Structure formats: C-alpha cells, structure tokens
C-alpha cells in the first residue's frame, strides 16, 4: 500500500505483532493534548493512503487506550474510502469522567483493511419472508 507522509515527523502505520489484523495509527501532535470528559478532538496522523479499489480502511479503537484512558473513535468505526487521498485523522472521544492526555506520537487507533461488495438497490413492494420476519431488538431472546 502506498503511504504519503504529509509531515516528516509522521509515523508509518505498523502491525504490532505477526497476527495483528489492525495496523496502529500514531498521533502527530506538536504537544500533548487534553481531552476532557465528553469531549471529542480531531487527532492528525500526518499520513495519507492509497487504498486499493475494492477495499476500505476501517478505523477502530485500540483496546488498551479505550480501556485504560476511555478514549475511542467518536464515530465508533471510521470509514476510509479507496478514493480518499487526504490526511487520515481520528476523532477521539473521551467516554470517561476524567481528563485524558493524548501524547505526541502515541498509538491512537488501528486501521483494518477489508474487501467490500457494492449492490444495486431495487425498490420492491414486498420482501421475502423469513422465520424472524420483522422481529427487531431482543426478538431472538437473550439465552
């Protein structure tokens, strides 16, 4: 995958282990920042990507930073389309009750690449019936 550094200080995404599905994304900050409880801040990474057509980059929380610091992407899962060429940024939200610090060059999120399918949408009067039918939230029980 082609990566462009938009700032010479930017850190390339890295897989932490051989079995890692997500590559870590790093904060590109001039100084550490504080995210207050309930606040969201847009964190720069200083990189842009050339994602192959037919793939999408999905930005997920890192389990460590979300568990220990209550910080996770505000939109839960960010979507980076294959035709986007701008800077990859992460909107980090503080879900906790304490001020949290994001340090310069800290690993802030992870990106997973996956194939996707596109569908043609057809307007119909009726949908095929299933056993579940229109049963919604909780309709299949809890156990």
UniProtKB/TrEMBL annotation:
Catalysed reaction, written as an equation: dUTP + H2O = dUMP + diphosphate + H(+)
Pfam families: dUTPase
Coiled-coil features, chain-numbered ranges: none
Catalytic activity, EC: 3.6.1.23
Gene Ontology MF terms: dUTP diphosphatase activity; magnesium ion binding
Keywords: Hydrolase, Nucleotide metabolism
Domain dUTPase-like: 9-141
GO biological process terms on file: dUMP biosynthetic process; dUTP catabolic process
Keyword Hydrolase belongs to the record: yes
Domain of life: Bacteria
Similarity-based family: Belongs to the dUTPase family.
PANTHER family on file: DEOXYURIDINE 5'-TRIPHOSPHATE NUCLEOTIDOHYDROLASE
The protein's name: dUTP diphosphatase
Annotated organism of origin: Oceanivirga miroungae
